[in-house]
Specification:
Blueprint lengths: L2 H7 L2 E7 L4 E4 L1 H6 L7 E4 H5 L4 H17 L3 E8 L5 E15 L5 E12 L16 H19 L3 H10 L9 E8 L2 E8 L12 E2 L5 H8 L3 E3 L2 H7 L4 H5 L5 E9 L2 E10 L7 H38 L10 E8 L10 E7 L5 E8 L4 H19 L4 H22 L18 E8 L5 E7 L5 E3 L5 E3 L4 E2 L12 E5 L5 E5 L1 H5 L5 H14 L7 H4 L4 H15 L18 E8 L18 E7 L7 H11 L6 H21 L4 E8 L6 E8 L19 H8 L2 E6 L4 E8 L9
Helix pairs in contact: 4-10, 5-10, 11-12, 14-16, 17-18, 18-19
């Protein structure tokens, strides 16, 4: 009996589908099953396709592609339609895809297989587990969508492995998973689930030429399915004893391929028998692809985090040894760049004189180049400071260094490459910087500033003052720039805050609203009487204050304190806190303490800087922010403005302003002194109605509780006093 007669007797036909030519060859039985005359024929692909249900045609395309990729059989159930669209019968197709190189060198494939009529799914066959439509397919699609979303959200290798372990596949969930990675010619387990501790030992360092399914998958790039222990033992007898002890029944090993490169293998093991039908293989293959992509993304993200952490650790210095009588805390938070590195930095530099310097700065930009320039500039500033230069000289040299560095980078760039580079890459960069030299014994600070925000002082009673300092242009704009120095004293218990503009302006704030937000945080952190931190300063309060400042502008609560600007600007943040230890520190004595410390500020207004008169008025307002009588506060601001203006107009020297408020709330005394180098004493005049000057003494007599002039060698000091008048409710 011929083979064709045997196949016809069991209602099985033969077909040959040539994908390159688009033709299908059928024997007589196959033609009959497709509803054609029962004779051998060769038809165009479109004629055969019209005989299949459209849904089944879409399915068989995916099954064939999967079989081509895996080198396995393509098996599917298909519904045959007549010319009126009615289902004639259901057939099962089993075919083998074979590669076929065309005349033009293109690689295509052809299918050679059988087609057999079936009434119901046969037990024990893979077709029994591949329904064409129904709940299983909908569950599969929902599962793949959910798995894809979960894997896409994983940000580390550990998270990817946790997601992979939690996947519940529809109808055939594995109870054992393992992910193998490749390093050179070795295979190792990088994560597993469903196994005990130490079970990965025999597989943790395996050569790729080992007769083990995962190694074979990595070598060939093709999946391996082992439906039964007999299949495993027959194909991999050498490593079967390693797998036998886990008591599994079926195994699937799939390659993890990204961009054509096999980066590892994924094992799914089952305690129940799995036949690995086309649908099941399709699900496993899709999960393996998503898992490979997720692992690659996680690896890239971890490499970037490692690079970022390394850059930060190399560029951000340690604060060094403890300084007697001083406490220091610092924070750096990169928020504006993709790699989480930027141009902000801080430093503490021991000086040959026994003093130390605090430096904080911000190089323009949030990219890698800004970080690189920052690292070079920080080293240069440290070198100049270690040579013993004064603050103004350090910044002058740093400005020349940055300007020369940017110009040399631009000159070294090849002219042909400039058109392909971002125009900002080689553009000149500038940097703001504040350099403060501190004597730890006396608390004297000498500050030079290059376009940077002024420092702030947290006084012993919790009051926060901006400390205006003389400054110059940012570094790198003009190579030869002078930077004047401002000198003041950090009193015992006071805290100095240096920060970059990111701490002030992040969250849509400008300088005014940003400082108001920070002032509220600083003033709220006041240790209460009996607080161990107040009695035993150990730096804990300062560290907590630094954390609170960062959280206020960058933490979750910052979204409730956005500024008036429309956009929510993000910038890198650097902050340094310096506290001089005393009876109370970083906020000091509470408001109701019976011995309230004095509140003091000092400011120099130079002849060449009359605009700093506005800063003097602001200093008085901040010093007396809780003064009971607003009219007295306005009077004090008016008299200060008049006194400082007179010095600039009628003398050739600078005005030195010293203001001090002492006493308890509601009973304080404000004393303001303005000193100059002129011996000419003020005298009372009687200006006319249209006169533009001559009313200073009259104002003092009308507004001050006490005032006077004290000659002091070369020069004089004009002073006035105000006594706080608490507002009490009217008896009515």
């Amino acid at each position: 009996m011929r083979t064709e007669d045997v196949l016809a007797a069991i209602a099985t036909g033969l077909w040959r589908w040539d994908n390159a030519s688009g033709t299908v060859s059928l024997d007589s039985e196959a033609a009959r099953l497709l509803g054609l005359p029962a004779e051998p024929t060769e038809l165009a692909e479109v004629a055969v396709r019209s005989r299949f249900h459209p849904v089944d045609w879409n399915e068989i395309n995916g099954i064939v592609n999967l079989a081509v990729a895996e080198g396995t059989l393509a098996e599917a159930r298909l519904r045959i339609m007549d010319e009126d669209g009615r289902v004639l019968r259901t057939v099962r197709s089993r075919s083998k895809p074979l590669e076929n190189r065309t005349a033009d060198g293109r690689v295509d494939y052809e299918l050679i297989g059988t087609i057999q009529e079936i009434a119901e799914p046969q037990p024990g066959t893979t077709a029994a587990h591949t329904p064409i439509t129904g709940d299983w397919r909908r569950s599969r699609e929902a599962f793949l969508l959910d798995a894809g979303r979960a894997l896409a959200e994983a940000r580390s290798t550990a998270e990817v492995l946790r997601v992979a372990a939690s996947l519940s596949m529809p109808g055939f969930s594995p109870d054992g998973l393992a992910v193998f990675g490749v390093a050179g010619d070795r295979l190792s387990v990088i994560g597993h689930h469903g196994h005990g501790p130490g079970d990965e030992g025999p597989f943790s360092d395996m050569r790729l030429d080992t007769a083990y399914p995962a190694a074979d998958v990595v070598r060939t790039g093709r999946a391996i399915y082992l439906p039964s222990p007999e299949d495993y033992k027959r194909r991999f007898p050498a490593t079967w004893p390693l797998a036998q002890r886990f008591g599994r029944t079926s195994w699937a090993f799939l390659p993890l391929i990204v961009a054509g490169r096999t980066m590892g293998a994924w094992m799914a093991a089952f305690k129940h028998p799995v036949s690995f039908s086309p649908d099941e293989r399709s699900v496993l293959t899709t999960v393996a692809r998503m898992l490979a992509q997720a692992l690659q993304r996680a690896g890239v993200a971890e490499s970037e985090r490692e690079l970022t952490t390394g850059l930060q650790r190399s560029m951000m210095p340690q604060l060094g040894p403890e300084i007697p009588g001083m406490r220091i805390a610092a924070r750096y938070v990169p928020t504006g760049g993709g790699l989480q590195v930027g141009g902000d930095w801080y430093d503490m530099i021991p000086l040959p004189s026994g003093r130390f310097a605090l430096v904080i700065g911000d190089v323009q930009g949030h990219d890698v180049r800004a970080a690189g320039l920052m690292g070079q500039l920080r080293i240069a500033v440290r070198a100049y400071a270690s040579e013993g230069h004064r603050p103004d000289a350090v910044l002058s040299r740093a400005s020349r260094f940055l300007a020369g560095l940017c110009s040399s980078q631009e000159a070294d760039a090849d002219a042909d490459e400039l058109s392909d580079l971002d125009s900002d890459l080689l553009s000149p960069r500038f940097a703001t910087c504040l350099y403060a030299e501190c004597d730890p014994r006396t608390g004297i600070l000498e500050v030079a500033r290059a376009g940077h925000p002024d420092p702030a002082i947290l006084m012993t009673d919790g009051t926060v003052l901006m400390r205006p300092t003389a400054g110059g242009l940012p570094l790198g704009i003009v190579p030869d720039t002078d930077y004047p120095t401002t000198r003041f004293t950090l009193e015992p218990g006071e805290t100095l805050m240096l920060c970059t503009d990111g701490l002030i302006e992040t969250g849509g704030h400008d300088l005014d609203t940003g400082w108001a937000r920070l002032r509220a945080i600083l003033e709220s952190e006041t240790p209460l009487p009996g607080d161990p931190e107040a009695a035993h300063p150990d730096g804990g309060h300062l560290e907590r204050l630094a954390d609170l400042l960062v959280q206020a502008v960058h933490g979750p609560s910052s979204h409730h304190t956005t500024g008036p600007l429309a956009d929510r600007r993000e910038d890198d943040i650097a902050v340094v806190l310096l506290c001089r230890e005393g009876e109370s520190r970083g906020g000091g004595t509470p408001l109701l303490h019976p011995s309230r410390p004095a509140r003091r500020t000092m400011l120099t207004v130079a002849q060449a800087e009359p605009e700093r008169i506005a800063g003097a008025r602001q200093q008085i307002r901040e010093l007396l922010h809780d003064w009971a009588d607003e009219e007295q506060l306005d009077s004090a601001v008016l008299m200060v403005s008049e006194m400082v203006t007179n010095v600039l107009m009628h003398t050739d020297g600078d005005a030195l302003l010293v203001a001090e408020a002492v006493g308890e709330l509601g009973e304080r005394r404000l004393r303001v002194e303005v000193a100059d180098g002129s011996d000419e004493l003020p005298h009372k005049r009687h200006p006319g109605e249209m006169a533009s000057s001559g009313r200073g003494v009259l104002l003092m007599e009308m507004l001050a509780d006490n005032w006077g002039v004290d000659p002091r060698g070369e020069g004089k000091t004009i002073w006035f006093e105000l006594y706080e008048q608490s507002k009490h409710p009217d008896p009515d």
